[in-house]
Amino acid sequence: MSNITQTKNMDEVVNWYKNNKPLYEALAQKVESIIKDVLDQNGLTYYLITSRSKDLDSFANKAKKDKYADPKNEIKDLAGIRVITFVRSEVEACKNAIKPLFKLDNNHSIDKGKALGNDKVGYRSVHFVAELKEDRLQLPDFKPFEGMCFEIQIRTILEHAWADISHDRSYKFSGVLPPDNDIERRFSLAAAALELVDREFDSLASEIENYRESVKQDTNKGHLDIALNTASLSGYLAQKFNTLINNNIIKPDYNKGEEIIINELKGFGIHSLSDLDELIGNNTDKFNFESNFIGLLRNIMILNDAEKYFAHAWNGKWNYIDSDGYFLFKNNGIDIDRIAQKYKVNTYFNGKFEDVD
Fold first, then answer.
1. Is 185 inside any structural domain?
2. More confident residue, 52 or 161
3. How far is it between the farthest Cα atoms of the chain?
């Protein structure tokens, strides 16, 4: 046992953390909530945000290392928050949104990707060590966390998977790898391949977004001879219903039903944006009812020709018309009771039919 370890009272250190662990857990949850609120308010995309206090055994194993003479003050990740994004560009966007929120400890914060340099591959992630700012500490809910550090990690899904695999004890990928079977070289190649895939996903996401923006511009100019696909449809709807979206009446998502609604539109005879634009017309105010993109498009088709929609596009993918939809169709001259009876669709008004096969 080293002299440093001997001078540390490990029982006292571990008991200190055992007593304070709930406070670090509460701190992690508070910071997670702050980050979520800011990212959501700024419309930034992310996959998952999690938080935790450090496991007691993990703390004990770390605290007994020689490099920690004063573990209570030197170990900075007792509260940890992890932001996982889909692609690399989102890491940068989230990083820029998060940095102003807290008092950063630049001596213990690192961008591991930049630290690798241009000639190496490996784990790439942004790590911030921080504390709450003074203005927040003045609030009663945050006062107990004064002087307490936390670590924020920001990385992509693929970087997260790599970190979990390479750091898992059962794989023991860390440290000096054995020379047998070219293991170290294969390890480096795997890391390089993962980085290439991460970059390609980022590039693809950027190209799709650029395409969507070009569709918005073409829509604004009246150039609509564009084939129907998820990206073109999203760009068109975002431009066409811009006012209703900004007023939070229409939610710009499909609730994971993109492929379903594309097939329904094609079944209805809509194969291009010009086809859809002709169906909608110029007066978008008539669609001033709460919905998302998939509900909006279904309502547009039903209002145009309910019989055609249920005969050729519906395909039994949904089986209930709520009160808003029922009266919307009824007030626009559609015999929705007859349609519902014919196609065995449940409605707010008529009760329940047997489930559609």
1. no
2. 52
3. 88
Are residue 151 and residue 211 in the same domain, yes or no? Answer: no
Total number of residues shown for the chain: 357
| pLDDT tens digits, 24-37 | 999 999 999 999 99
| Lookup: tokens for 236 | 């068109």
Q: How many CB atoms lie within 10 A of CB 181?
A: 8
DSSP letter assigned to residue 66: T
Residue 356 in any domain: the answer is no
Residue 209 confidence class, pLDDT cut points 50, 70, 90: confident
User: What's the pLDDT at 100?
Assistant: 96
pTM for the whole structure: 0.66
The percent helix, strand, coil of the chain (3-state, each to 5) is 55, 10, 30
Is 61 found in the same domain as 154?
yes
Statement to judge: residues 222 and 258 lie in one domain: yes
Domain that holds residue 20: 3-174
Same structural domain, 24 and 144 = yes
Q: What CATH code is carried by the domain that includes residue 82?
A: 3.30.460.10
Helix (H, G, I), strand (E, B) or coil at 28: helix
Pair 140, 37 in one domain: yes
Domains: count for the chain = 2
pLDDT value at position 2? Answer: 42
CB atoms under 10 Å from CB of 250, counted, come to 24
State the DSSP code for 122: S
For 130-158, how does the pLDDT look when each residue is reduced to its tens digit (9 = 90+)? Answer: 999 999 999 999 999 999 999 999 999 98
- Is residue 332 domain-resident? no
pLDDT digits (tens, 9 = 90+) for 98-118: 999 999 999 998 876 565 554
Amino acid letter for position 230: T
**What is the residue-wise DSSP string for 203-267?**
HHHHHHHHHHHHHHHHHHHT----B--HHHHHHHHHHHTHHHHHTTSEES--TT-HHHHHHHHHH
